[in-house]
């Protein structure tokens, strides 16, 4: 899965789960500051990403995720493992 495909899937997840307009979801976007996600939303997002990748996300790997680009890197890492 390419970065663009991951970004498209992430846009879809954020729109379906949190009502966030896909146009707002770009790599530089901060999840908590700009998209107003909270810690519970982050857990929900991690679960959705686990479903997307078929792999478990370790909490310590997701703890440092702050931007959409960080999520893309985390998904790429999961897909490679």
Describe this structure in words.
The protein has helices at 3-18, 39-53, 59-62, 68-80. With 81 residues, the chain is mostly helical. The radius of gyration is 11 Å and the shape is globular. 59% of the residues lie in helices and 0% in strands. It has a single domain, classed as Non-ribosomal Peptide Synthetase Peptidyl Carrier Protein, Chain A.
Give a quick precis of the structure.
The protein has 81 residues and is mainly α. Helix content is 59%, strand content 0%. Belongs to the acyl carrier protein (ACP) family.
Which features would summarize this protein structure in a list?
81 residues, mainly alpha, globular
Specify Rg, calculated over alpha carbons.
11 Å
| Largest pleated sheet | none
Measured distance between first and last alpha carbons: 13 Å
Share of residues in strands = under 5%
- Which CATH class applies here? Mainly Alpha
List SSEs in N-to-C order. Answer: HHHH
Quaternary form? single chain
Principal-axis shape: globular
Q: Going by CATH, what is the homologous superfamily?
A: ACP-like
Structure summary, number of beta strands: 0
How many structurally independent domains?
1
CATH architecture: Orthogonal Bundle
Produce the secondary structure layout.
Blueprint: H1 3-18, H2 39-53, H3 59-62, H4 68-80
């Amino acid at each position: 899965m390419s970065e663009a495909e991951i970004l498209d899937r992430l846009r879809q997840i954020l729109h379906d789960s949190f009502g966030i307009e896909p146009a707002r979801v770009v790599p530089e976007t901060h999840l908590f500051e700009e998209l107003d996600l909270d810690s519970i939303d982050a857990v929900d997002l991690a679960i959705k990403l686990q479903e997307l990748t078929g792999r478990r996300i370790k909490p310590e790997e997701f703890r440092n995720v702050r931007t959409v680009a960080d999520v893309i890197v985390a998904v790429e890492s999961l897909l490679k493992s």
